[in-house]
Design brief:
Blueprint (H helix, E strand, L loop, with lengths): L8 E5 L4 E6 L10 H15 L6 E6 L5 E2 L3 H7 L4 H19 L5 E5 L2 E3 L1 H7 L3 E5 L3 E3 L13 H8 L1 H10 L2 E3 H7 L4 E3 L4 H13 L3 H15 L5 H15 L2 H11 L17
Parallel strand pairs: 2-3, 3-5, 4-6, 5-7, 6-8, 7-10
Antiparallel strand pairs: 1-2, 8-9
Helix pairs in contact: 1-3, 2-11, 3-10, 5-6
Length: about 270
């Protein structure tokens, strides 16, 4: 079976009850499409309901964790009807919301690129460990899109002040900065990512499963972290509407043609000290 014939998300439960979820489109740097979103949504739901699962670990196959959306796929999606676009954005919103509110503890092991939706995935996880080669960006605005479905999780992880900067500038930042911002909890050398993950997983496995689930529930209830259906719908509707704008059309075309978007004029102003 070739890379393109394999499922876009793999899941395996080991004898200790650790569910290993692998984002599996390495030929496209694990960029997500509709199939990956649906598999992640379905998979998280199934693992959350499985009493044998103690911990869910999310990682990426190949050189990168997750490089955001498959923009070629998005460009095809945007030409569909408003109803079709809304359905795509609702599934995306629901997938991140399901991971965020999952009663099982979740751990993300990050290496290489973690862009766009990838930052939303890790923001929705309980513990995030990043290799020193990890690089991050909330890059949607660069292509005339926005990160609406993952903004609540990013704001919880990083704080609204930091999201205001990075979701507006689309700047890239490294694992050290991600840790300082709160998006990442632990950084380590790339070759130590698995062993550091094993240490954290073992710490979780030593704890009572129902006590862990109750801790997450109390935290979400007391801090108002659950995203209700009405809010999720508004996020999805705004997300899908932006994708069908002329601006998004130009942004995605600029990506495909490897050029700057037409709205960009280089700043040549001299800033006086």
């Amino acid at each position: 079976m070739t890379e393109t014939e394999q499922p876009s998300v793999l899941a395996e439960i080991d004898d200790a009850g650790v569910a290993w979820v692998t984002l599996n489109r390495p030929h496209l740097n694990n960029a997500y499409d509709g199939d990956m979103v649906q598999r992640l949504l379905d998979g998280v739901g199934a693992l959350a309901a499985n009493d044998a699962v103690r911990v869910i670990v999310i990682r990426g196959a190949g050189k990168h964790f997750q490089a955001g959306a498959d923009l070629a796929w998005l460009n095809r999606v945007r030409t569909g009807t408003p109803e079709e676009n809304l359905a795509v954005s609702e599934r995306t919103t629901d997938a991140v919301r399901a991971l965020d509110a999952c009663p099982k503890p979740t751990v993300a092991l990050v290496h290489g690129a973690c862009f766009g939706g990838g930052t939303g995935i890790i923001a929705a996880c309980d513990v995030v460990i990043a290799a020193d080669n990890a690089i991050f960006s909330i890059a949607e605005v660069r292509w005339g899109l926005h990160a609406g479905p993952i903004i609540p999780q990013l704001a919880t992880a990083m704080g609204a002040r930091h999201v205001r900067r990075y979701a507006i500038t689309a700047e890239r930042f490294d694992a050290k900065v991600a840790c300082e911002l709160g998006l990442v909890h632990i950084t380590c050398a790339h070759e130590q990512l698995e062993s550091e993950g094993a240490r954290v997983i073992d710490a979780i496995l030593q704890n009572g499963p129902s006590a862990v689930a109750a801790t997450k529930r109390i935290l979400f209830e007391s801090q108002g972290l659950y995203i209700d259906d009405a809010t999720a719908h508004r996020l999805a509707a705004d997300h899908s509407a932006q994708r069908q704008t002329v601006e998004a059309e130009e942004g995605l075309l600029s990506f495909a043609e490897k050029r700057a978007a037409k709205w960009y004029t280089k700043n040549t102003s001299v800033i006086l000290s």
